Structures are given as C-alpha cells and as structure tokens.
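Inverse folding, one chain.
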C-alpha cells in the first residue's frame, strides 16, 4: 500500500529538501512531544515511580521485537551499534584456522571489533569485494566455506543501499556451521526483516536513522542460545534478577533477568529517550514497514529514471533496497555538486564514492525534481 505524504507530521520548513534519512532522520512532532513531556517529568523526579524504571523499556522492547518477528525476551537496549557488536564479539569464539567474512568498505562499527577478535584468535579476516554488476550476495556466498567461522555483514550497504539477500547468506552460513552477525542500521524501519527466516546469532541497529528515534539508543537481538549463559560487557545492577525491588538491591545475586536483558546497557531506563523511541516505533508500526518500503521504492524509482535521463548511471532496482540509492559521479564533479545542493537547500550525503540519496515519507516527487534540476545544471 502506498502511504500518502506525511510531511505534516514533521517540522521541516517548506524550502528544505531533506533526502538524508540514512544519515539521521528528522523527529516527528509526536517524538518531539514525547521528549518534551519526558523532560517535564524529569524536572520533577519525585513524580517518577519505581515502575517507570523498567515498564517503559519493556514496552519499547516489545515494539522493536514486533518489527523483526522476535520475542521481546530476545531484545536488549544498547546505546550504539559498536556496543552491540562488542557484545557479539564477547560471545563468539573462533579458532586460528577459521575466517571472518566482512564487506568491502563496511561501516567501521561492524569491523573494528572483528579486527580485535582476529588478533585475539588468529582468525583471518576475508573481505568481500562487490561484483562488477553491483550485486553482493553471490560474492559473499563464494567466500563462505568450511573454514568460515563468522559472517559479519549488513542488510544493505551503508554507502549506497546495495542489497544483500540475508536469507541466502544465512542458509549457507548455517550449512558450514558459522556464526552470523548483522548490522541492520540502514534497513530496519524501512525494509522488511524477519529474524525467524534469517536466524542471525546477533543483530544490531541504531535507532536514529530509519527507526526515527533519538541518538544514543539502539537495539540488539540475540538468538535464544545466548540468552541463558551469554556474557555481557558490563554488569549493571538493572539487569540482575530482582532489581525491580529497590529495597533488596544489596542482596547481591549472580542471576540475570530473563532473556537478552542481561545485555542491556547500564542506565537503559533513559527517562527521556525511551518515550521518544516508543513514539517513533509506534508510528512506524502503524505505517507498516512493508508499506514504507513500497512507498519509498516508488520515489527512488522516479529518481533513478531521472538520473538515467541525465546520462548518468543508476544502479538497477534488483541490486538495491527500495529506500536508498547511491549515484556515482566522476570525483572531480563532487565538490561542485555538493556546493550547489547546499545552496539550493537540498540535503543528501556523500559516502565512499557515492552520492547517497535516502528519502522518507516526508518527501514526494517535487523533492526528487528539485534534486534532478540541480544535477541537470551540473551535468
């Protein structure tokens, strides 16, 4: 279902064309309002009950779980992808004879931890180069073999939205007995993803891009096999069994709350961030991720057609996610294009060798045409 334009839900001036959700989403008015109310309550801490330290986080946990087909006991609240990836690293053991498969030009948060694991274990890092036709999946599958211990990838590449078939990769990863870790920061909220089909060991995402929430609050999914004896990277009192009863906190225990809660970051209650993220995920759930993807796919389709009419090459639809498109230009043109776009109040990102265009429901075809007009003048 195509969703009507939703610009009225955002505080975006009429003269601004913001095509940069892959960098950071603007706040919806409902998210702003939730944050304002939370600040008001935080101003008067005597109004915050004991139940508010844990209850709102459970609601948010459930909302996120619903987006990926998981149970809420499989979800932890983390401040960043690097935090979640560090948890994954802490719970994956490799041998020196094994390999770690990563993507070329992967986002650093899904690479540095694996470099450390490589140093500690002796496992070799194998970097997958994108195929000449722009497709990733076959190139990844070719690198996965009996020596593979870990595959650490994204759902779509952060520089240009080029898509990876996670179900195919997951099947082969399981076939060789390897682990699968996914950074879904550039897909979750705009591209359907079901962990029941993909079955990753860990999945991590930020919350401030396509999930449209505040910075410094993200999400970790952990397969149930890690939720019984998995090792967290910090030891917050809030994740321990019985911590809801403040009168018994000095009755120390080695037991954790059930599920992935053992991986929650300290101070996850975040009285301001949690209500904002809840408002954001509630609206995403109401729109429906499948509908968001269908709507944005139509918009990027118009954009791609326009790019081709200008004589530049756009990636074929089958090679990319529908919510994002990366256009490659000669390096000598990029500075001039960037300057003209800013002068025209058009905001996109340049990542790697791509001009990354990432619309959302606050955009329409008029925004696309504004962008194309500037690019036409620079052509």
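Residues assigned per position:
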């Amino acid at each position: 279902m195509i969703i009507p334009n939703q610009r009225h839900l955002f505080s975006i001036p009429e003269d601004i064309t913001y095509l940069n959700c892959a960098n950071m989403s603007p706040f919806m008015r409902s998210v702003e309002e939730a944050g304002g109310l939370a600040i008001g309550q935080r101003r008067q801490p005597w109004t915050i009950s004991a139940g508010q330290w844990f209850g709102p986080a459970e609601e948010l946990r459930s909302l996120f779980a619903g987006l990926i087909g998981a149970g809420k006991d499989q979800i932890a609240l983390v401040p960043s992808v690097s935090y979640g990836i560090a948890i994954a690293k802490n719970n994956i053991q490799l041998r020196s004879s094994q390999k770690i498969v990563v993507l070329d030009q992967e986002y650093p948060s899904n690479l540095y931890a694996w470099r450390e694991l490589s140093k500690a274990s002796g496992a070799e890092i194998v970097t997958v180069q994108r195929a000449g036709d722009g497709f990733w999946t076959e190139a990844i599958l070719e690198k996965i073999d009996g020596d593979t211990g870990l595959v650490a990838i994204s759902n779509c590449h952060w520089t240009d939205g080029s898509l990876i078939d996670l179900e195919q990769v997951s099947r082969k990863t399981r076939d060789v007995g390897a682990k699968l870790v996914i950074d879904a920061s550039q897909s979750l909220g705009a591209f359907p993803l079901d962990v029941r089909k993909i079955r990753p060991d860990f999945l991590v995402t930020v919350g401030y891009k396509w999930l449209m929430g505040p910075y410094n609050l993200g999400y970790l999914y952990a397969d149930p096999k890690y939720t019984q004896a998995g090792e967290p990277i910090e030891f917050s009192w809030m994740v321990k069994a019985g911590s809801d009863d403040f009168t018994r906190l000095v009755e120390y225990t080695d037991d954790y709350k059930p599920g992935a809660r053992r991986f929650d970051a300290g101070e996850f209650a975040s009285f301001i961030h949690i209500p904002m993220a809840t408002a954001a995920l509630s609206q995403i759930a109401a729109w429906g991720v499948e509908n968001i993807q269908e709507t944005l796919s139509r918009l990027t389709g118009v954009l791609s057609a326009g790019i081709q009419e200008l004589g530049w090459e756009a990636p074929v639809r089958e090679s990319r996610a529908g919510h994002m498109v990366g256009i490659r230009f000669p390096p000598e043109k990029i500075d001039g294009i960037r300057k003209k776009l800013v002068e025209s109040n058009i905001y996109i990102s340049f990542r790697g060798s791509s001009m990354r265009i990432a619309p959302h429901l606050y955009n329409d075809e008029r925004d696309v045409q504004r962008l194309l007009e500037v690019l036409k003048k620079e052509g």
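The longest helix spans residues 289-309. The chain has a mean pLDDT of 95.
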